[in-house]
TrEMBL record:
SMART domains: HTH_ARSR (SM00418). This is ArsR family transcriptional regulator. Residues 1-60 form the HTH arsR-type domain. PANTHER family: ARSENICAL RESISTANCE OPERON REPRESSOR ARSR-RELATED, HTH-TYPE TRANSCRIPTIONAL REGULATOR KMTR. Keywords: DNA-binding, Transcription, Transcription regulation. InterPro entries: HTH_ArsR_DNA-bd_dom, Metal_resp_trans_reg, WH-like_DNA-bd_sf, WH_DNA-bd_sf.
Length: 60
C-alpha cells in the first residue's frame, strides 16, 4: 500500500480505496501528520493528503 499517497488523494478517495470510513482515515492521517509523514492541503471543501519526503525516505 505504499503507493496510496504518492500523489495527493482526498479523504473520501482513501476511505473507498481502504474500505474504511472517512472518519477512520482522518484519525489515521492525524497521526501521520503529527509524525510529519503526511502533509495536507485544503481546496475548498476537499482535503488532499500526500506523503512527505520523510515518509519516502522511510519507505526506501
Amino acid at each position: 500500500m505504499p503507493a496510496l499517497l504518492e500523489a495527493p488523494r482526498g479523504t473520501a478517495d482513501l476511505a473507498a480505496a481502504l474500505a474504511v470510513t472517512a472518519g477512520a482515515v482522518s484519525q489515521h492521517i492525524a497521526v501521520l501528520r503529527a509524525a510529519r509523514l503526511v502533509t495536507t492541503r485544503r481546496e475548498g471543501r476537499h482535503v488532499f493528503h500526500v506523503r512527505t519526503t520523510r515518509a519516502d525516505a522511510l519507505l526506501g
